[in-house]
């Protein structure tokens, strides 16, 4: 279908092909907030950085709360760790729905609604009288809030950058280390001074700060705009993907292979981190305070490693997938060697090494999703990616805890985790096969946005064009 509209100020033509609505207009009708790599883009990056720092800081500092919850409710490792796993998994499992909701109601509204929900859920969790109620208040409700804020923050930042996309990806992903460094240490101090309930209440206060960050996010999902000649005149081409087209990314075998490999990797990567306090206390007689300090080394290294890997991945002669495979394989070898640790220095070296390799796994994730799915499909593809990953993540720490309970040792759990990481790395050698079996509309010739800035799709707000 084709439609032309003429007026004194602009000319538009609209096509609808393969579920995509393409609009050609003579004038940009843009403001500064719609321009990629602008000052507003960096303000959005700052808001996204703070949001992801708080979300990931709380999520992955659950290991600090774990011993306290086990003592409080007199439960096993597996049952208690399930609370943290649900917080990571349940909300992320609904990520595709979250992506579609943000397109329907806008990034800003969706973020503010779920930030309020997260704040209330954490406040209720801090006063819950039983572990069963924590499954609901923290595992389900707070977990959903975590996932929505995380997904929206990453997508909004990626869509606001073209020339500096690798840099922005490194910064937004390194916020994990900043958040974990700050939240884990603050949580341990609050536990020492006031107990775990006040510590979780502190998380609720941090979540309240996310409301300010959400106001910066754009109201609608951005569209993709490029120049094109139309009737001898320079027009601006805007593609707006409809829901059926977005769902078609599920036929992208390259994306699904990467999701499955990453799911295996993420299922076990954080097992040593979750159980580090209990492992060091039981096997090396290290106090909980000293064990909690290990998270400092991990977090500091993560801050730099994610930026370094994204910078290296932007080079023309570097294959990002090889970086991911290298990191996953060597992370597996590191975890296999963890049971042989015999001193606190060994644990410091292990956490530092794991933090360095984390950059090649999580740091490159948004860029690799863009590589296999395209920037125009990032919102829904990133939702699918997190959904698949979360399903596997929920089983990792509880399964490791179950093995540790049965064997009365963490060694078998660490061996299984190390082998799984290596298998996840080897799976990506099937990428060529996946590319050959992709549907025609999923095959892309990808370019580096840093090198072909003028040719890459530029991101603008849909309503400013339509």
Primary descriptors:
MFS; 2 domains; 22 helices; globular; single chain; transmembrane transporter activity; Growth Hormone, Chain: A; transmembrane; disordered C terminus; membrane; 466 residues; Proton-linked_MCT; 6-stranded antiparallel beta sheet; alpha+beta
Topology (SSEs and partners):
Layout: E1 2-6, E2 11-17, E3 20-25, H1 39-59, H2 62-73, H3 77-93, H4 95-105, H5 107-125, H6 131-159, H7 165-193, H8 196-214, E4 222-230, E5 233-241, H9 243-247, H10 253-269, H11 271-274, H12 276-283, H13 288-292, H14 294-313, H15 320-337, H16 344-363, H17 365-373, H18 378-393, H19 396-407, H20 411-427, H21 431-436, E6 458-461, H22 462-465
Domain Major facilitator superfamily (MFS) profile: 41-436
Organism: Actinia tenebrosa
Subcellular location: Membrane
How many domains make up the 3D coordinates?
2
* Cα gyration radius (Å): 23 Å
Binned, the helix content reads: 55-70%
- CATH homologous superfamily title of the largest domain: MFS general substrate transporter like domains
Please state the structural category: alpha+beta
Low-confidence stretches: 1-32, 219-241, 443-466
Largest sheet: number of strands, sense, barrel closure: 6 strands, antiparallel
Give the number of DSSP strands: 6
CATH class of the largest domain: Mainly Alpha
* CATH-defined architecture of the largest domain: Up-down Bundle
* CA distance, first residue to last residue: 17 Å
Query: How would you write the strand order of the largest sheet?
Result: 1-2-3-5-4-6
- SSE succession: EEEHHHHHHHHEEHHHHHHHHHHHHHEH
Global mean pLDDT: 77
Q: Any idea what the shape is?
A: globular
